[in-house]
Design a protein that fits this description.
The structure holds two protein chains of two kinds. Chain A is mainly β. Chain A is built from three helices and 21 strands. In chain A, a hairpin with a 2-residue loop joins strand 15 and strand 16. The two termini of chain B are about 35 Å apart. The chains are: A mainly beta, B mainly beta. Strand 15 of chain A pairs antiparallel with strand 15 of chain B, so a sheet runs across the interface.
């Protein structure tokens, strides 16, 4: 198909295989840790041609809490040296705060364990205020004034069962866009987007979005029905939180990608329609911008399909999105 | 969204008041004659009459416009003396033509056969309309055109065309509602394999007693569900094959943004304006094949004091908020533009 034109230059960490440990709890610990490790390490990235590059804007650790030798410690350092540091004991809990200043000063995300829930996950973020001390070993970091928060008390991305997973991370070279994808059995169990939006409306102060929804089952998280329908997973802030739908091209009662379940029958190309951002929060209604370099396609494609199918593989299909890619085969299970 | 930028330069023959004569047939004749005269009257790239019949036996594809007054618009059955006319617009294709055939005797004025072709019409006489290879029938004598032909009405006609002839729009309003919408358009950014990227809409009115829609709505334009037997609303061709099109637009949940959220943006205080795509649901031709030139989804009721207002809300009247659509208006050429009349 004719590939859509990218607005950003992208770097990648793809096909990070996280084999199951045989324990669902440990698998979730691994997921927490491997995402942090990939985001905060400047090395190990490739460009779109598959060449090794250094990330100029890796995420930085603001603070964390981890367990080592049975003792939990919380301070402004990285306490997650391995997945074993990511745990909870009913009273204490591991968490981490990461920052990406290329989106906004003090644009931060926080995530970690849920007390008394071996399978749960706290997820939160601040659009421009940021988290601050005191840091606690028994409480998740205190939400700043512009915080988005969400908690999955059971089975984040796993359904409480053991799972092999494949982690893919992609970032724009300017640090303004980060996408985290965790594939389990061909389903995108984790789909996080931490972006500065494209073409934000005038008046949106410190435009930024956090797409970091809970997922307590094996649900595919990046589908048309998930992102454009029923629930608003994207959050932004402008004098107050606003929940947003991801929009794309519709006719009748549904998106092109769900209504025309075939390639274009004249051009033989798959659809690729842009993604907008529309707030449904009272007082902040309206379409406020777009997502960079994300397009919706047909539900008929298979997870991991690349465009072209061989060779350059500039784009990949993660159901139901078309995203930038880096020439490799895309592992989805 | 910020002011949309137009791709075309536009010429307008709008706010044409057509006062009721007191006779229904005369009113219909006046409307049809005014449409024809408007199409051929533009200064740039006007439609050209390729042939006609005057309803009195004189008819041929000889380039003569025999519709010189309303008495030359005569309805009667094919085989009997009746009127027809063929107009060509080369901006839509070297042989793109429309044929209006008043070929029904039983109901004067209310019905016609409207067809179009990309291959040019030939033949024709005082009793028989010409034909074209691969012609597409947009209206048959089973469908009412215009409006209630049995009563007399005052109307307002709006005709606008891009100076390159690639886009022509005809609207007729009666008593505050739009009762006719004809579009003859070239698609913007068509997929390369679409050999004849042109689409046509000639609205009809379904059965008597269900007179038409009141304005171009989201449902009418973007749905593939039957709406008064005339869905999807657009016709197109690819080579010798016909397919249907409807409008697409940015949406979420179960429909387009604007009907889902019919209000101003609460951060920038601007009314939403979004791009219109062209999608075919026809088996064998499914897909998004292009977009509309200089036409956007607007928001019903929320702008300019209502659906008949102009956009933006600064009295420049650059665009007409025509139902669900935002389309170029006279303020683009001379600001401020005129107030769109929707009632005579």
């Amino acid at each position: 198909m004719t590939l859509p034109t990218l607005s950003k230059t992208w770097i990648f960490k793809t096909n990070i295989i996280i084999p199951t440990t045989g324990s669902a709890i440990t698998d979730i610990q691994q997921m927490h840790y491997q995402i942090k490790k990939a985001l905060t390490t400047a090395s190990g990235w490739t460009d779109a041609s598959g060449n090794a590059v250094t990330n100029s804007y890796p995420w930085t650790v603001v603070a964390s809490c981890g367990v080592s030798g049975g003792t939990y410690t919380a301070d402004a350092t990285d306490r997650w040296a391995s997945y074993a540091n990511v745990n909870q004991d009913g009273t204490h809990l591991a968490w981490i705060v990461l920052q990406q200043a290329q989106v906004n000063p003090n644009y931060q995300i926080a995530y970690g364990c849920v007390p008394s829930s071996n399978y749960g996950m706290n997820m939160a973020g601040s659009f421009s205020v940021g988290y601050s001390a005191p840091w606690s070993t028994t409480a998740f970091p205190t939400a700043p004034s512009d915080a988005y928060t969400s908690t999955a008390t059971t089975g984040y991305g796993s359904g409480n069962t053991v799972f092999d997973s494949v982690l893919h991370i992609m970032m724009s070279t300017d640090g303004q866009c980060t996408r985290v994808i965790l594939m389990v059995s061909n389903a995108c169990r984790v789909f996080w987007v931490f972006d500065k939006p494209k073409s934000p409306v005038t008046g949106w102060t410190n435009p930024a979005i956090i797409l970091m929804p809970q997922n307590s089952s094996s649900t595919d998280m990046a589908t048309i029905s998930r992102l454009t329908n029923a629930n608003s997973y994207v959050n932004g802030y402008n004098g107050g939180l606003m929940t947003m739908y991801v929009t794309t091209e519709f006719y009748g009662s549904g998106a092109i990608g769900t209504q025309i379940i075939t390639w274009n029958q004249i051009s033989s190309e798959w659809p690729a329609t842009p993604a907008g951002l529309l707030s449904v929060t009272s007082g902040k209604y309206g379409r406020h911008g777009e997502l960079y370099d994300i397009w919706f396609s047909s539900v008929m494609l298979a997870a991991g399909d690349t465009f072209p199918a061989t060779g350059a593989r500039n784009m990949v299909y993660i159901p139901n999105l078309i995203l930038p890619w880096n020439t490799t085969d895309c592992l989805t299970t | 969204m910020a002011m949309p930028s137009v791709d075309k330069t536009w010429q307008f023959n709008v706010n044409q008041g057509l006062a009721s004569s007191g006779t229904a047939l005369t009113d219909v004749r006046n409307l049809l004659l005014s449409i024809k005269n408007s199409l051929k009257g533009f200064s740039s790239s006007p439609w050209v009459v390729e042939g006609s019949s005057d309803g009195a036996g004189a008819g041929a594809m000889d380039g003569n416009d025999r519709w010189t007054d309303i008495s030359k618009l005569v309805w009667n059955s094919a085989g009997s003396n009746h009127s027809w006319i063929v107009l060509r617009q080369t901006g839509l294709g070297s042989l793109f033509e429309i044929c209006i055939d008043l070929n029904l005797s039983s109901v004067q004025g209310g019905y016609m056969t409207f067809s179009w072709a990309t291959t040019g019409y030939s033949g024709g006489s005082g009793t028989t309309a010409p034909t074209a290879t691969g012609q597409v029938t947009a209206l048959t004598t089973a469908s009412v055109w215009g409006y209630n032909y049995a009563s007399t009405f005052s109307r307002v006609l709006h005709v606008m065309m891009s100076t390159d002839g690639q886009c022509t729009r005809v609207f007729n309003t009666v008593g505050g509602t739009i009762h006719l919408m004809w579009l003859f358009e070239t698609a913007k950014n068509p997929i390369s394999a679409w050999t004849t990227p042109v689409y046509v809409s000639v609205s009809q009115y379904g059965s008597l007693g269900a007179y038409g829609y009141t304005k171009p709505t989201y449902d009418y334009l973007s749905s593939t569900t039957s709406y008064q037997g005339n869905m999807p609303p657009f016709q197109a061709k690819n080579g010798s094959n016909n397919f249907s099109l409807c409008f697409s637009g940015e949406g979420y949940a179960s429909g387009l943004n604007q009907p889902n959220q019919a209000r101003y943006n609460q951060i920038n205080s601007l009314a939403p304006v979004t791009i219109i795509g062209l999608v075919s649901p026809t088996p064998g031709y499914r897909g998004r094949h292009g977009q509309a030139y200089d036409m956007w989804w607007g928001t019903l009721y929320t702008m300019g004091g209502g659906w008949d207002g102009t956009w933006p809300d600064d009295s420049t009247r650059k665009f007409w908020n025509c139902g669900a659509l935002i389309i170029p208006w006279t303020g683009l050429n001379s600001s401020p533009g005129v107030v769109p009349l929707i009632s005579y």
